[in-house]
Specification:
Layout: E1 3-9, E2 13-20, E3 27-30, H1 34-47, E4 50-57, H2 64-82, E5 91-98, E6 101-108, E7 114-118, E8 125-126, E9 129-130, H3 131-145, E10 148-155, H4 159-177
Parallel strand pairs: 3-4, 7-10
Antiparallel strand pairs: 1-2, 2-4, 5-6, 6-10, 8-9
Helix pairs in contact: 1-4, 2-3
Length: about 200
Amino acid sequence: MRNATVTRETGETSITVELNLDGSGNANVSTGVGMLDHMLHQLARHGGFDLNVQASGDLHVDAHHTSEDVAISVGRALNEALGDRAGIARFADRTVPLDESLIHVALDLSGRPYASINLDFPAPMIGELPSSMAKHILETIAYEGRLALHVRQLAGENEHHIIEATFKALARCLRDAVRVVDESGAPSTKGTLNS
């Protein structure tokens, strides 16, 4: 089983994430930030993962610390669940529409963190989530999950549609890239994806 449990306790948040890459798309998520919960449900459902995220944080300040620490924990759980990454498909790309929005995501589970996120939100807030946090969440998942992530907005006028299409595309990419296709070793001429 490719799974992981990550806990993160700070003076600002308390987070527990449980991730099973070989699940069935079940999500049990409670962060106190409705839009973040919605996106994590998309990640589980369209990624085919089982994901349990329980978070409490200083939401009386704003959603920043909770969202950031959840992203850190989800990224770390992904990295841990992937283990040595032997035999995985590694690369994936998807273009996903949601009404007027169209998002392209490409990723490489290379073990080397990188993020290039090109999203343009028409409003400063997506529910209770600041639009600026969307890019930060994606960058944080990429860095903590040790993957190269490229996100391009090809069309979009509604901030909810833009972020939802993004997470659906990310989830579908992860679903494709984490597939075990060859158990003989890491998909790299270096022989490893952990160095």
